[in-house]
Amino acid sequence: MKIICIGRNYTDHIKELENEKPTDPVIFIKPDSAVLKLTDDFYIPEFSNEVHHEVEVLVKINKLGKHINEKFAHKYYDQISIGIDFTARDVQNKLKEKGLPWEKAKSFDGAAVIGEWLPKEEFSNLNDINFRLEKNGATVQEGNTSLMLWKIDELISYISQYFTLKIGDVIFTGTPAGVSKVNPDDVITGFLEDKEMFSINIK
Ligand code: ZN
């Protein structure tokens, strides 16, 4: 499986990092080796002094497709979750300055947390889902999918113009504001509506 991530999909987060608002979705890929098992702790890699959490809504692909029309995009996924796009911000900033790809900052081992999956039928409106992240019991990031610049079906259609989507692929749909550094002994816990989807110890 592959992980396809969307950058800059929430206006408040674009402002927070002083990025330009994109005219098309920003896309990057994480390999399957980036997935952190939910039973494992997250170890801050030695090459970074500033790893940020980015909580994001996830979509799991259940049907092979390419060049998917937005109208039919809903037929290509059946489960929703949330996860963390861990980002070595110091590394990413250096790469950005030089116009280089972001993989070293975002695709390292453990950089993708994938929460428990819920059937999409559990949500009456996928474009109105609340999610949030707690760090050590305090809410640090809050979002609602209605605030996405590109909604799930638009993203699936857009991504599939470039990459064939395969069964089991996961899409990270972008993070809202509130990203911050994780430190050893932090515990980060993700909630989709009021359901806990993951809880990770930082080492
Ligand atoms: Zn992200």
Please give a structural write-up.
The chain is an alpha+beta fold. It has a single domain, classed as Fumarylacetoacetate hydrolase, domain 2. The chain is 14% helix and 34% strand. The protein is built from four helices and 15 strands. The strands form three sheets. Strands 1, 2, 3, 5, 6, 8, 9 and 12 form an eight-stranded mixed beta sheet that branches. A four-stranded antiparallel beta sheet has the order 11-10-14-15, with no helix packed on it. The longest helix has 10 residues. It is globular and about 45 Å long. Zinc ion binds next to strand 1.
Short structural description:
This protein is an alpha+beta fold and 203 residues long. Helices cover 14% and strands 34% of the residues. It has one domain: Fumarylacetoacetate hydrolase, domain 2.
In CATH, what is the class?
Answer: Alpha Beta
One letter per element, helices H and strands E, the order comes to EHEEEEEEHHEEEEHEEEE
How many DSSP-defined strands?
Answer: 15
Please give the radius of gyration in angstroms.
16 Å
What is the count of structural domains? 1
Relative strand content: 25-35%
Shape: globular
Biggest beta sheet summary: 8 strands, mixed
**Unique bound compounds:** zinc ion
Q: Into which percent range does the helicity of residues fall?
A: 10-25%
Overall mean pLDDT: 96
Span of the ends, CA to CA: 27 Å
CATH topology: Fumarylacetoacetate hydrolase, domain 2
- Estimated structural class: alpha+beta
The CATH superfamily is known as: Fumarylacetoacetase-like, C-terminal domain
Provide the low-confidence segments as ranges: none
> Helical element count?
4
CATH architecture: Alpha-Beta Complex
